[in-house]
Amino acid sequence: MNNTDHILELIAEMNRYLNEWDWDSEEQIDLEEKYIQRVREVGECNFLVCLFQNYFDSMMRSLMNHFFFVWKDLHYQDWLKILRLIADNSLTRFGFIIFCGFTLAIDIKKVILEDEYISDSVKQYFNTSFVRGTPGPDSPFVEEMFRKHGMEATTLWKRLKEQGAPMKVAV
After folding, report:
1. Fewer Cβ in 10 A, N or C end of the chain?
2. pLDDT in tens, 15-35
3. What is the pTM assigned to this prediction?
4. Domain ranges in the chain?
5. Phi and psi dihedrals of 162, rounded to 5?
């Protein structure tokens, strides 16, 4: 089994665990405690690349919410690494753009246009498809998700800015 298959199997197992969880109980789900070591073994970046490449739309958004523990502490350089690995896949790239804008508040268009490792065809796509820029974090869902996980969104956004990320919000 290659690493991608192993990661997909891990994600599927985690998703089954979520689906089988008794959400009516007052007990907190122990997803992080149960899976953090296995995610670290495959690597958080590899895990997220696989997630972005194989899950889309609301399913990806839901999993990213549940897998908050995987990405909440990633360095901006890790997000760049993920971007560079998925940039040439238009479907994967689109999900990543939405996540970066809505959740991370990163000005992903600026990142892509200025990154020397991103192909000219991807840059051209951005210049024509996102003339007015990419989405920013304007959803109450984002703030609620962060609060649910015991963190303020601005805490993450400030850290990303300090690490060099161009931001869609003033922090």
Report:
1. N
2. 999 998 887 777 878 899 999
3. 0.91
4. 3-16+30-162
5. -60, -30
